[in-house]
Design goal:
Strand content of chain A: under 5%
Number of domains of chain B: 2
CATH architecture of chain A: Orthogonal Bundle
CATH class of the largest domain in chain B: Alpha Beta
Distance between the termini of chain B: 38 Å
Number of domains of chain A: 1
Helix content of chain B: 25-40%
Strand order of the largest sheet of chain B: 6-7-8-3-9-10
Oligomer: heterodimer
CATH topology of the largest domain in chain B: Rossmann fold
Structural class of chain B: alpha/beta
Order of helices and strands of chain A: HHHHHHHHHHHHHH
Largest sheet of chain A: none
Radius of gyration of chain A: 25 Å
Structural class of chain A: mainly alpha
Chain lengths: ~325, ~400
């Protein structure tokens, strides 16, 4: 039995040696990256300059804002879009961040997330629209999106570093690539799911292509689009933390320090900060995805509160 | 009346190579053979008809008969494979994209089965949709949209959102949206089919009322015969992509082109399709041409023809009354030998004429209760014929028979 299995093993071994050649995929990829770096250097520099301009200024801006202003703005948004309970939660959560002494790191992260999200949406949303209009393009883009989403997040960091060095810029770029797929997908899906008769109605009343898109398709796809944007923000947040490995900074730093130096407390604090930011961004962006119906807005809430029978009179 | 819309030999083939399928059709191959051999579907095959200005033209057929495809070719939501579609003489199949968009904005609008309102817009904004797309100024847009809403009785709901309305109200908005652009042609694709029966009837009445106020050319798609009969001035019946019969409701009920058309009447009450004039008979009893004829002459004429009753009308054929052998004899006996009585004195009491345009349903009781045939008169009081119980029963029986 042992002899037999040893024989089989060596048989497979010889087969493998004879038939499987090394395709040198890794070397090929390296060569591709080198080639691109050599010939498209200017392009990468331009991209890097733009991203660094947006990201730097956003992080600067959020750090420049006095903390009470941030408290006030976020709480007001929460009250307007979600409700007073969430507004209270936002105030408490921001206070917790302050107490952990993670305010500057949080503002860095917020700036990076917003910069990366803007870039991802800028590329992703138009791509999603074109993808919805063309089945051919959908067939091409879909596997690319699958590839982008399934490739482990850490792998993005390597080419990012090669092209852009370390720091905020490659961190943001890796984040953009990682966070883009949901908004492309949801834009595509949202437009494709607009009821046929609504599109027909748009065309029957004489819409041209742009009118059909802006007056019918985008408004009707809005819930899907907002869900996509929400997912993109969430992915950006998680990637920004990972990107701290290449020096992106922000809330990832305490987490990384926690791992490298086995400092449980500081790692947990960083993680908690990320969670808090995530919850606030998530609830706020989700609220924009729901149609602003009467009964959900602040005004109606107030009316409900003050009307005698406790029912809004409008609806 | 002039022709508003004419459809000439229009075909629609769905599939990869429509031209090849057309060649097969020309060679006389059937729809099923073409589908089996090429996988292409013949949606509409050689459809031709004309719609007159101001009429409601109904296209009726079962689902899959191609009626929705047909109506969508009239504004080119679906491109016809072959044939010509003329609106006011202009062939829309040859129009450029720009001309087509202009046409859709000004000349032809559509009402959809599922309403197809924009959920993010108010009723007023929805109504103004067509005007908005056409670039009408916002003040005029609002005014015309409000007028259209007023016409369908929804002015009060202008600021509501579609999801706050009932189905019937939503379709009123759909109708208002189509009317707001003041189109020459209104396409209605199963517009009332998604509504419950009571609301549906209400909407049909609404359409007829609007049509009475300002008549438009309407192409109305439905699978419901009752609806077709109720709203249609003329009806085209489609079967498997072909127009098998075009005619007035009466014509179609009286002479169905084939078994498919006949099958629609299975279990359908046609008594409201026929009017009194449709079944009135001229030959039933002898007519005395003028007042002033003597009672005795009238009696002898009845006896000569062996008839129990006769209708009396004047020189202008205006109905005067009805006389019977008994009523004449009675009157003559009462008179002296030399006296010439007036014929009015011999009229049979209790015989009321019915108007020619009244549907059978409304006159059935009267015909059944009257011992004599009931005379039918037109709007000028002119005599058109009579309906006897036998005629009525015969009509009812015939529609039963054609249904079976």
């Amino acid at each position: 039995m042992i002899g037999f299995s040893a024989d089989t093993a060596s048989f497979w071994q010889s087969l493998q040696e004879r038939f499987v050649i090394d395709l040198k995929i890794g070397e090929g990829f390296t060569a591709l990256v080198d080639f691109m770096r050599e010939h498209f250097g200017l392009l990468f520099d331009a991209v890097a300059a733009t991203i660094s301009f947006v990201a730097d200024n956003l992080t600067l801006f959020f750090n420049y804002l006095p903390a009470p202003v941030v408290f006030g703005v976020l709480a007001a948004l929460a009250l307007w879009r979600v409700g007073w309970r969430f507004a209270l939660f936002v105030l408490a959560a921001l206070y917790v961040i302050m107490s952990m002494d993670l305010w500057p790191a949080s503002m860095d992260t917020l700036g990076l997330v917003i910069a990366a999200t803007l870039a991802a949406l800028g590329v992703g949303l138009p791509t999603g629209i074109i993808m919805a209009k063309s089945d051919t393009l959908q067939a091409i883009v879909r596997p690319v999106l699958d590839f982008m989403q399934t490739l482990p997040a850490f792998v993005y960091l390597i080419p990012a570093v090669i092209f852009f060095g370390t720091g905020r810029v490659p961190g943001t770029i890796a984040t953009v690539v990682f966070a883009m797929p949901p908004c492309v997908r949801m834009m595509n899906l949202g437009i494709r799911q607009v009821p046929v008769e609504n599109v027909e109605a748009g065309r029957a009343f004489g819409c041209n292509g742009a009118q059909l898109l802006f007056k019918v398709e985008l408004p009707l796809a809005l819930p899907s689009i907002m869900a996509g944007i929400n997912q993109t923000i969430m992915l950006a947040l998680s990637m920004v933390v990972i990107a701290s490995m290449i020096g992106a900074g922000g809330l990832g730093d305490p987490v990384l320090a926690g791992i490298q130096q086995l400092r449980l407390g500081i790692g947990f604090e960083g993680g908690l900060g990320v969670v808090i930011l995530a919850i606030i961004l998530d609830r706020l962006t989700q609220s924009f995805g729901q149609r602003n119906k009467r009964g959900a807005g602040l005004l109606t809430r107030l009316k409900t509160f003050f009307s005698r029978n406790g029912k809004a009179d409008a609806t | 009346m002039s022709t508003k819309l004419s459809v000439e030999h229009v075909y629609k083939v769905f599939g990869a190579h429509p031209k090849r399928a057309l060649e097969r059709i020309e060679r006389g191959e059937g729809k099923d053979t073409i589908f089996a051999e090429t996988g292409m579907t013949v949606g509409v095959s050689d459809a031709s008809f004309e719609v007159q200005e101001g009429e409601i033209f109904v296209v009726m057929g079962l689902s899959g008969s191609g009626k929705s495809t047909l109506v969508r070719m009239l504004n080119r939501l679906i491109e016809p494979t072959a044939g010509a579609i003329r609106i006011d003489g202009r062939d829309i199949t040859r129009m450029t994209r720009r001309q087509l968009i202009e046409l859709r904005r000004r000349e032809i609008s559509m009402v959809f089965q599922s309403f197809a309102l924009m959920p993010h817009q108010t009723v007023l904004e929805n109504t103004a949709f067509g005007l908005n797309v056409a670039g009408t100024s916002s003040s005029e847009r609002e005014k015309r949209a409000l007028d259209a809403l007023d016409a369908v009785g929804l002015k009060a709901n202008a600021d509501s959102f579609p999801d706050e309305l009932s189905g019937g109200m939503k379709q009123r908005v759909g109708l208002a949206r189509a009317l707001a652009v003041d189109p020459g042609i209104l396409l209605m694709d199963e517009a009332f089919s998604a509504l419950d029966p009571l609301i549906r009837t209400e909407m049909q009445d609404e359409l007829l009322r609007l049509q009475a106020e300002q008549s438009r050319t309407v192409v109305f798609i439905t699978h419901d015969l009752d609806e077709a009969m109720r709203v249609g001035d003329r009806i085209a019946i489609m079967e498997a992509g072909e127009v098998v019969q075009v005619g007035t409701p009466e014509e179609i009920v009286r002479e169905p082109a084939n078994d498919y058309v006949r099958s629609f009447f299975r279990g359908v009450d046609v008594t409201h399709v026929f009017t009194a004039a449709d079944i009135a008979r001229r030959d039933q009893i002898t007519v005395i041409e003028r007042v002033g004829v003597s009672l005795r002459a009238a009696l002898s004429r009845l006896q000569e023809h062996d008839r129990p009753v006769a209708v009396v009308h004047d020189r202008e054929r205006r109905y005067q009354g009805m006389v019977s052998v008994e009523s004449l004899t009675e009157r003559i006996d009462a008179l002296g030998r030399r006296e010439e009585g007036a014929i009015e004195e011999a009229f049979v009491p209790g015989v009321e004429p019915v108007a020619a345009d009244r549907p059978l349903t409304e006159i059935m009781t009267q015909v059944a209760e009257c011992p004599w045939p009931v005379p039918v008169v037109d709007e000028h009081g002119r005599y058109c014929g009579t309906i006897s119980r036998a005629t009525l029963l015969h009509t009812l029986n015939r529609t039963e028979a054609s249904a079976a």
